[in-house]
Design goal:
With 324 residues, this protein is an alpha/beta fold. It has helices at residues 42-46, 72-81, 97-104, 183-188, 194-202, 232-238, 255-261, 266-276, 294-302, and strands at residues 4-10, 24-29, 32-36, 58-60, 88-93, 115-120, 124-127, 156-161, 169-174, 178-181, 204-205, 208-209, 214-217, 221-225, 243-247, 280-284, 308-311, 317-319. α9 links the parallel β16 (280-284) and β17 (308-311).
Length: 324
């Protein structure tokens, strides 16, 4: 199994269909498991995958419409029942705090989960890769505690405001840029074995600088965009992504309806991805009026997108493209 992949739990918008469960997506990334927008039926969909409650370390809600959140109570209770030992951080629009609390305690249960609340009040960095900086927008806390606790993660997680009928945020994950060692250059400077690691850590060894024996390696980028009209936030989130998961509720013929209801068409999603240089585009959140998702892929191509393209299906797994 890839160490970095998207597990699609559901792809329906508004209401589920016979073929599509409500929304639900898990991003597995080097030991971290981020659950995005758990709609109704999410915990049951997880049973059809290899993703377990113990794999989840973070939950990200874009907004509080039911097709993106009604599965949260079951997931949290499942995690308590399974005795998940680690802390789990939850990000969600701060304006929906009362809804989060209702979902969190929708029914009585033996609550043992250490859930850290990180409401998003404004766009910005929620947690940095070093674990050393948390903005006020995403300060992580336990209810009733003062101050913020920090958790080191292998990526920077940001939020951007989207344009829907209620407060909505999209999320972007960025791996820090690194450097790739070039064996020929190392050999030419007489560096081998443990000295390679020492050079990477210290930046210089016996007069040899790291830059002389390595080349830049761009960190991978992932973004999750749901329920929004076209806006600057969509473009900012998509920019340079290796894997972009984006709603495409309607086809181009329903552009006016998409605008009124605060959604994207597949054509708009494809155009954004093409302009942003996305490597792999995943279309999802399909309206129940459509049966054939190949139509969505065709419209994204018609919009000019030439990268790898997937019209998501329930329970499929999509690897994050390998580093260049």
């Amino acid at each position: 199994m890839s160490a970095r992949e998207l597990v699609v739990l559901g792809t329906a918008s508004q209401v589920p269909t016979r073929q599509r469960n409500h929304n639900g997506y898990v991003l597995l990334w080097d030991g971290e498991g981020i659950l995005f927008d758990p709609g109704e039926g999410t915990q049951r969909q997880m049973l059809h995958t290899t993703v377990a409650a113990h794999d989840l370390t973070r939950i990200c809600l874009t907004h509080f419409h039911g097709d993106h959140t009604l599965g949260l109570p079951g997931v949290l209770q499942h995690m308590s029942l399974d005795g998940v030992p680690h802390e789990v951080t939850a990000h969600y629009p701060a304006s929906g705090q009362r809804y989060f609390e209702r979902l969190r305690h929708a029914t009585p249960f033996h609550d043992t989960l250490r859930l850290r609340e990180a409401p998003v009040a404004e766009p910005g960095v929620l947690v940095a890769a070093s674990g050393q900086h948390l903005t006020a927008a995403g300060r992580e806390r336990f209810p009733g505690e003062s101050g913020a606790r920090q958790r080191e993660v292998p990526f920077t997680l940001e939020a951007r405001r989207l344009s829907h009928r209620i407060d909505t945020y999209g999320y972007r994950l960025t791996e820090p840029d690194t450097r790739r060692m070039v064996p020929e250059r190392l050999a030419g400077r007489g560096i081998s074995g443990p000295d390679v690691g020492r050079l990477q850590r210290e930046g210089e060894l016996r007069g040899v600088r790291l830059e002389e024996v390595s080349v830049p390696r761009r960190g991978q980028r992932f973004a999750f965009v749901m329920d929004t009209r076209l806006c600057d936030g969509v473009r900012d989130l998509a920019e340079g992504c290796d894997l972009l998961v984006i709603e495409s509720t309607f086809l181009r013929a329903e552009t006016e309806l998409a605008e009124v209801s605060g959604h994207l068409t597949a054509f708009q999603a494809g155009r954004v991805a093409a302009e942003a240089g996305v490597r792999h585009l995943v279309l999802t959140h399909f309206s129940q009026r459509y049966q054939d998702t190949a139509l969505f892929a065709a419209e994204a191509r018609a919009a000019g997108f030439r990268g790898e393209l997937t019209a998501a299906r329930d329970l499929m797994r999509v690897p994050v493209p390998p580093r260049g």
